[in-house]
Amino acid sequence: MTLRTTLIGAVLMILGEAWRMWGVATAGTVTRRRSRNVQKLVNHGPFAWSRNPLYVGNFLIWMGVITLSGVLWFLPVAILLFAVEYFYIVRYEEGVLESIFGREYLDYKARVPRWIPRPPAGGSAGEFAWAEAWKSEISTFLQYGVIIGLFIGKERLGPLW
């Protein structure tokens, strides 16, 4: 762990979590469960930039944790694992959304990129439930504390760890 990898890793983690928080504040806690009971297609906020903003946030967090660890050779492995895992998740979710929302979802899908965020043409105004997002993400913040604690312990204990 160098100062450079620590800073880059921390910035990636912060950006990833900020993107996730915005997504959870936009979509609500429905993002924490697998349900076909979806009432409304969320297409504002970060969902106007990318169809999968929570997964984009997760990707940035993964890359941040790996960079922070200093085990940079694992980055390509993690990218491959991420691609395989989320390929199947996203395919399933897109099928569900298409079956529920039909043409509305197909129009959204044609307009908004799946992965790499792109600013929307007409803005992305909508409602955001920030208190709900903070509550929903508390377990994620606890995980960050454990990860950072382990990295600090590794640095302090050196070869003993």
* Uncertain ranges: none
In DSSP terms (H or I, runs of 4 or more residues), the helix count works out at 5
- Reading the helices and strands in chain order gives HHHHH
- In terms of structural class, how would the helical and strand content be classed? mainly alpha
Radius of gyration: 18 Å
Provide the helix percentage: 55-70%
The termini sit apart by 14 Å
In round numbers, the mean pLDDT is 88
Q: How many domains is the backbone divided into? A: 1
Structure, described:
The structure is a single chain. The chain has 161 residues and is mainly α. The protein has one domain. The chain is 66% helix and 0% strand. The chain is built from five helices and no strands. The chain has helices at residues 3-27, 53-69, 75-101, 103-111, 130-157. It is elongated and about 60 Å long. The two termini are 14 Å apart. 24% of the residues are buried.
Features:
161 residues; mainly alpha
